[in-house]
Amino acid sequence: MSTEKAAYHHGNLREALVRTALALLEDGGVEALTLRAAARGAGVSAMAPYRHFADKAALLTAVAAQGYADLRDRLAHADGQTDARQALVEQGVAYVLFAYERPALFRLMFGAPLAAPKVAPASADTAYGILAARVAGLVPEAERETATMAAWSLVHGLACLTVDGRLPPPAQGNAPTTEALARRVTGLFAAGLPADGGDAGRGRSRGR
Amino acid sequence: MSTEKAAYHHGNLREALVRTALALLEDGGVEALTLRAAARGAGVSAMAPYRHFADKAALLTAVAAQGYADLRDRLAHADGQTDARQALVEQGVAYVLFAYERPALFRLMFGAPLAAPKVAPASADTAYGILAARVAGLVPEAERETATMAAWSLVHGLACLTVDGRLPPPAQGNAPTTEALARRVTGLFAAGLPADGGDAGRGRSRGR
């Protein structure tokens, strides 16, 4: 106990448990994630996690919350483009790759079984908020909510189909990489968004 | 046995079991779906299902296959419009409503855990094929595969977010119905698809 206190203080144990839990999740799925295994991975006694988590569900919720934060950071990082449509594409690619690289976490965050935190209302602090802000700069106000919802649905659907192995095989040739497919799909969507500013029409039309 | 033979012949028992299984699935989720319960529901002995299904997984696969057929029929039925973009919207709405009305079946068809049949390659016999055919009539050839994939991702993502309760609450006012939301989201997407025939640009631009 005193060793644990020395190694983990000021919330460090909580962080260490969540970090360990994330690794367990990716290695063995949600079944592998127990408070006991997290304790072992963090090098503390089996009882130590109970200081921070009442049960496995509480740990899962914390893990999902960390996942939302990671996804938000990833979208924010991807969104560093000067061109607004390109920024939207990069966000979409980042979303799909997040799911592709961390499928168990993605399922935990968005799957049905968990009583995880719902996607929070749009604010700059959430992944949805980062997407909404980018869309808001692109489309007329009347279509912003619909366009944000559509953009989210698009990448979420592609992510789910990818993670669950439900993509149809390509009509010919090799299947594109996940990144290439995500880039094409989000590129087509972004090009088709109604442009802000009236009669300029859609992005791609303008570009022709 | 002789009663069963009288009641079910020429594959009728198989159909009855799948029909019963579909009802069990919607009532109690995949856990409620056992060969024993299906037998009870169909009014046959507990051993009778084994004539058609080796185990629960085989029954689940048959149920999912029936789900794909139902989804295909629903998309085909929805796609009866003279306006091609409107037909695409109706297909999308039908897809989302299918998931909304039959969430357990939808999860079985597209969720990860089941070793269910994958979405088959595009052919007129599949839901994907019906979508692909409609998209093919709308967009230039070079963009068809991407546009079909994008359309599928869009409605699949909206369906998943709906079924899993992950839709963000509306910024203001009441949440739209599932149908209204699906109509808006697919409408925005369809309007933004690149139009076939060169420089006419995108659908909505043309309409302005």
TrEMBL record, chains A, B:
Residue range(s) of DNA binding per entry: 34-53
GO MF assignments: DNA-binding transcription factor activity; transcription cis-regulatory region binding
InterPro entries according to UniProt: Homeodomain-like_sf (IPR009057), HTH-type_TetR-like_transc_reg (IPR050109), HTH_TetR (IPR001647), MT1864/Rv1816-like_C (IPR025996), Tet_transcr_reg_TetR-rel_C_sf (IPR036271)
One Pfam family this sequence matches: TetR_C_33
Domain HTH tetR-type stretches: 11-71
Gene3D superfamilies listed in its UniProt record: Tetracycline Repressor, domain 2
Keyword Transcription applies: yes
Keyword list, A-Z: DNA-binding, Transcription, Transcription regulation
Signal peptide extent: none
Database matches in PROSITE patterns: HTH_TETR_2
Protein name according to UniProt: AcrR family transcriptional regulator
Species annotation: Nitrospirillum iridis
